[in-house]
Amino acid sequence: MLCKKKNNRIEGVPVYCKKSSLHLSGRNNKIIFGKNCNIVNCRIKLYGNSTLVLGDDCYFENTLIMLRDSEARFGNNTEASKVTVTSTGNSLLDLGAGSVICGEFDMRNQGIIRAKRLWTTWGPHIAANHGLIEFGDGGTADSIIYNSDFHPMYDLEGNLQNENQDVIIGNNVWIGRKCFIFKGARLGDGSIISSGTYTGKEIPPHSLVAGNPGRIVRRDVVWAVKDKPELKELFPLSADDEDGMRAFYERAYEVTPTIKHRKGCRLLNRLRVFWALFSAK
To answer: pTM value?
Structure first.
C-alpha cells in the first residue's frame, strides 16, 4: 500500500498482529513485511526517510523499533524478544537470516551494526556511532559492545584524542556475560571471551581471553553450544585446517528456533496496516 501524499509505503501484511502498533511520521518511510511474519506487543515507529524490512517467517515480541533517517533489516527466520532498536542519522542495522536476539541496539551518525547471523542472551547493549560493529556468525550474552566513546575529547590545541574505531567480531565467537568490548577490538574466529572481560585489542583465532584488561590465557581451543557425542569423531583438529574447523562448527554451533508461529485475522491485520499508513502525520 502506498500513500502518495507523503510517499509512505507498507508492503505485505503480518499474518499475526496482536497488541502492536505502527506509527509513521514524515515522508519517505517504508515497511516491508515478509511472508508469515508475527508481531506481538510491538511498537514500530518511523520518523521520516526510514526503512524497516522483516524477512519471511520473522517473529517479533515485546519489541520497540524507532528509526529516523535510518534503515533496519532483519533476515528470514529472525526471532526477537524484548528488543529495543533506536537509530538516527543515516544509520543501519542489518542482521542476517536465523538471528535470535534480545537487548538494545543503538546506531547514530552513520553507525552500522551488521551480522551474518547473531544470537544474544540476557540483553546486551550494542551501540555504533559513525562507524562499524560487525559480527560474523556468533553470539553474545549481556555484554556492552561500543565502537565509540560517544563524547569527543580534545587536547588543549583542539586535536581530537579519541577517534571512533570499528569493532570486528569473527565467526563462532563466544562472548560471555558482563564483558565490555571496546572500540578497535578484533576478535578472531572461534575465540572465547570469558565473563567480565574488558578488551579493545586484536585477539587471535581460537583463543581464550579473560580478565581486565583482557589477556590470552589459552590458545588453540574450540567450543560447542552443547556437548554432543558425535563431535568427538571430528577430533583431532588443527587451527590451520580451515575446512576441518568449518566442519566442526557446522555441527557444534547450532541455534534452534523455539517459537511457534501463529495466524490471525488477515482482514483485521490489513486494516491495522491501512490505518497506520493513512494516519501518518
So the answer is: 0.89
